[in-house]
Each structure stands twice: as structure tokens, then as C-alpha cells.
Amino acid sequence: RLALVLAALAALVAVKYYRDAEVARQQELALKSLGSEGLFLFSSLDTNNDLHLSPEEFKPIAEKLTGVPPTSEFEEEETPDPNGETLSIMAKFQPLVMETMTKSKDGFLGISHVALSGLRNWTAPAAPRSVLLARQFKAFLPPKNKLDLGEPWWIIPSELNIFTGYLSNNRFYPPPPKGKEVIIHRLLSMFHPRPFVKTRFAPQGAVACIQAISTFYYTIAFRIHAEFQLNEPPDFPFWFSPAQFTGHITLSKDSSHVREFRLFVPNNRSLNVDMEWLYGASESSNMEVDIGYLPQMELESQGPSIPSVIHDENGNVIDSRDPSGEPIQFVFEEITWQQEIPWEEAAQKLEVAMYPFKKVSYLPFTEAFERAKAEKKLVHSILLWGALDDQKQQTTVCLPVPGSGRTLRETVLESSPILALLNESFISSWSLVKELEELQTNRENEFYSKLADLHLEKYNFPVEMIICLPNGTVVHHINANYFLDITSMKPEDVESSIFSFSTNFEDPSTATYLQFLKEGLQRAKPYLQ
Q: Coiled-coil stretches, from where to where (predicted)?
């Protein structure tokens, strides 16, 4: 018996040795075939390290190339029952604080009063109150293949990506909404009569995930990217793009009853709206760009949905008021949740679905340096005029094209090799210039003030990528416009020797950003030893 056991162990060791040798051989062949950069990309997609890409592992590339998630996630819409329950929604709106616009610093010099008329006149919601059928919110229910907590699906899929470009700026009236767009359009129309459910730039649409599950109910967290056109002819277009709309809905699994609904634009950062307006009637016309702060833009249900028609136990319609003339009060059962995740976790899942580059955690500025010190890593910091992870555009003045911040997040920052290296060797952060300017003047914490000062010394409009030590010392940096310029050139035309192109990698942007990160690591070695 002992001999059999020893023989079995020997066989297992032999099998393991053979498998390890085979894996090593396949890796060597892969390295010869792909080169080191190509193998790095392949390995970042090969999540189970079997040197084969399954359809699920290839899915991010497929979605990136096509721009459309699998059609199995979407179902046909049904016509709501007009006698079903109704939900009363209230709109709360505080207009943009004009003083937060960059152009306000010079008194809006050179900007005609007509250009800003739509913005100045928008002081209240278009419809302070609206009553909707509960069944209309069926659009928020998960498809049958997305019933796990935190697993995102698209309510309205994005039809744009880095390959398809962007939609026209020279438009005034939204296209008629279709399917699941209808309820989103109806809700946003409470704020302004001209909402565009699909934004001009990617990522468009609306994404959702289950936050909580009970026997009869879901709580669904959602995120919507939409914008408004504030002007009408004969004025030129003025686009108003909130950073995002987010919120949650608690509804029954058959959508007959809505317990709770809230939608809002986050106001926790100092700037949360992008504005762009044309000075002509064509795509080649000059465009002005600015950002500002919107204190409140919110929709909230006044209570649970209630029956529009009330029946007694015999099925007869009865009066909705009691004998004294008061409306009948409904009592709703308390929901016992069987599974749930925190709101923060659900919001993060939605953010990654919209922005794959957020598979890397981007920490707040000061927190990033504390974490880098604790983990003995470098800080990979991006300093911008506008935000990196929402719909505040990174455009340059007078150019109606996607800007450097958007281009970075849709290309190099979400590429698999960059994600892998950032997660392995860096603590990442992005910051608004305005926030660091405020931190720079805050003398309550001299260390934080100095960190902001060191960053701002290196900043050039509109986006600066910075690599620094945990003490704030900058070891490497590059401006996004310069980076995009050199990566759009042929390798032989690049005069600077600061960056080099990899001959083994097809995408020069990714290869050059990898080189930027690796050179930062190399330059930091003397300081970290």
C-alpha cells in the first residue's frame, strides 16, 4: 500500500513537472511570437493565465471595437397599463452659479449677452411636479442575465467610442426618444424642455446594477449621461452637460409598484457642469468652453406609487376619498432585504462600466500621497482643468473636437498594459486645477500646500500627467497635448529622445505612455533606495 501511495505521489510530481515545463515552453513561444510588449498585453487579458483567450476574456476588446454590448441584454418594451399605479415626482433645481465660470473673472469680456441668454434665463425647473405611471419605470429592471448584485447592464447603450467619433454640435432639438429612452427623456424634461438622452461624446447612455434584492423588490442604482440644449434659433447652440445623473429606484420585480425614486447631479466637487457654445452655424465655427458649479438638480418621489383606481374586495371601483373627504391613506409593508451592497460599491461598479480606466483606483489628492508613503510606491497624478471621470469635457477653446482628457481616458488610460502597470507600481490620482489652487493657499497643512504647489509648478493647460515621490517631488511629467502630438507622428519624425516607440506594439499611444511610466520608475530609483 505504501508503494502505491509513493507511486501515486511520484506520478503527481511528474505530471506537475510536465505541466510546468509545457507552460514555460508556451510562454517562451508566446514571447518569441508577440515580443515583450505584446505578451504583456496578452497576459493582461488572459485572466486565468492559461495562454488562451476565452470569449469572456476577449469581451472587453469586442465591446471596445464594436461599441455595443451584447444584444441579449435588451428586451422589448411593453405598453404600460393606464389604470396602473402612479408615482408623483418633484423637481428641485438651483441655477448655475455664474461666478464659478472661468469667464466670469473678466466679466464675461467678449461674450455676447445673447450667447448666455438661455443659461441666464434657466432659473427654475420646466415642470416642478409630474405624475408618471409606475409601469413606465420597467426600463430600470434588470435583464434576465444580470441578476447578480453589482453586475452592470446598459439601460441605454452607448453608440460612440474612440473609433466612431462624436455627434454634431450644431443641433437644437433632440431626436424622438425610443424604447427605454422614453422614460429617461420624460424625467429629464422636468428640468428643461430640450434634453438629449444621448450625449455628443462617449460614453453615452445609461447604466445600472442591482444594489439590493428582496423577495418581491429590487433597489437599482443607475448612472445617466445626458445633456441639454439651452438655446433656440436664431441664437447659436449652447450645450449644458452635467457631470452625470445618478440615483436609485426601489421597485417591485413586476414593476407594478415603485417604492422610492431619486435622481440627482452630484454636487460634492467644486465644478460639476460643462458648457460649450458656438459662434456660428456650422461645425467649423469657433466654440467657447467653460465649466461651472450647479448647486442642485434633483428629482425625487413624494412617496410610494399609489393605485390610480381603487377596487373593493368584490372588484367594484370605490372613491379614493374617505367619508370625511380626505384622501385614503395607504399602508405599505416594510421591505426585508435578503442581499445588498453599499451605495458606494454600486456607484463604483457603474463608474467602471462607463469608464474602464477606473479599474485603477484614483484616490483623492492628499489620500494618494498618504497611501503611496505607506505602500512605498510612486504617485501617478493627472492634473486637469476639468474632471477626468464624468461628462465635463476636456476640450480646448475654439475647437469643437474631443479634447486631451477625454482622449486619454478612452485610449491609453483604459488599455490593459497601462492598467496592469498602474495597479502594480503606482498610486493614482486626478485633481482639478481649481481644487489644488485652493489647497495651495490653505496654510493649515503646510505639507498638503507644498504638494499642491509642486504640482501647479509643472502644470500647463489643459492636462498634465505627473509622476512623483510620496513627498511630492516630481520625477517626470508630460503635457497631454504634447503627448498626443508626438504619438500622432511617425516614430522617425519625433525629434525628442524623451520618449521612444516600441516596434513590437501596434498602438504608439499605449507604448509611449508605458515608456513614460517606466522612465518615471527608473528616475525614482535613487530616491527610493
A: none
